[in-house]
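subagent[fold] <- orchestrator: predict structure for attached chain, return tokens only, no commentary.
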Amino acid sequence: MFADDTNLFYSHKDIRNLKSTLNNELIKISEWFKANKLSLNADKSHYMLFGQNTSLQNIIIKIDNNIISKVNKIKFLGVIIDEKLNWKSHIELITTRVSRGIGILNKASKFLPTHILPTIYSTLVLPHLQYCNLTWGKNYNIRLYALHLLQKMAIRIINRAGYLDHSLPLFKKSKQLTIFDINKLQIASLMYKILNEETPSYFNKFKQRRRDLHNHNTRRRDNIQVPQFRTVIRSFTLSVAGPHLWNSLNNNLKQSKNIKVFKYNYKKSLLDLY
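subagent[fold] -> orchestrator:
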């Protein structure tokens, strides 16, 4: 028997403590695998150090006395995770896949009726833009620029529009969100679920309201407290981007009776801005 995608995470500021703890835990994990008649392939196992200055840091990590190799990126459930968590490699992968999908879409547009093209877009292009967008979609615009250009190209194709035609009206006509607004919808939807207790308790840390911090009767007392941050990268994280986006929404939208209604109304409000 085999168990795929098994992961062990550990955090510590001291690299020596990190090495010692991981090796001790891997001994226990190896014993557990053997006791449960599972096979653990050391050659296919790797370790990665997360942080901004990890290129010169190498530690010896072993499984059954076999040294496992260090990597700076790895694919996990279809997402490329890199040691700096900037998602650059994953975005490049998506860009390649979307480009291939658009090539097929463009060829198909020459002999298929117009009403079929949105279905092809939703099959070959949109899933790549949506999958785990919550994680990588909040990023530097320059990093998403090529992907956004490809999406605009696809929207022009399914609407049989010219190369220079303004794309936002076409997005609205097709009822499709830009890659940036796909990210907003996913973040806002998760915040709705968190605040309505539809997520695991782990996410409760994201929903501290201002009224929990003071009793002043202000207009913003129901807003979510936004953590302090010093870097742009930190502002991309869910703990910052989530509360910040939620606070910008109007109260009627926040009070939607269920997540389905919330998504519908928020998507409509985004499309109305195109």
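orchestrator: received. Logging for downstream: Residues 210-214 have pLDDT under 50 and may be disordered. The longest strand covers residues 73-76.
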